[in-house]
Amino acid sequence: MKEFVEYLARHLVDNSEAVMVDLEEKDEVTIFKVRVDQADVGKLIGKKGRTASAFRVLLRAVAAKEGKKAVLDIIG
Question: Domain 2-75 - what CATH class?
Fold first, then answer.
């Protein structure tokens, strides 16, 4: 799943080298912390949060396929 998150994030931002994905396990949930360049935070969130919402839906679908739960945090 980490590769999937990195792939999506790198293709949504301009400065793809600045994308970093950290994992944190809490209870039964995997938290993906995506760090991007400050200038690219808006591109990852999108208008009215629509891009971030779609990103989260895709992540939940991939996690559900593997029988897990996942959460996405965007850090600028």
Answer: alpha beta
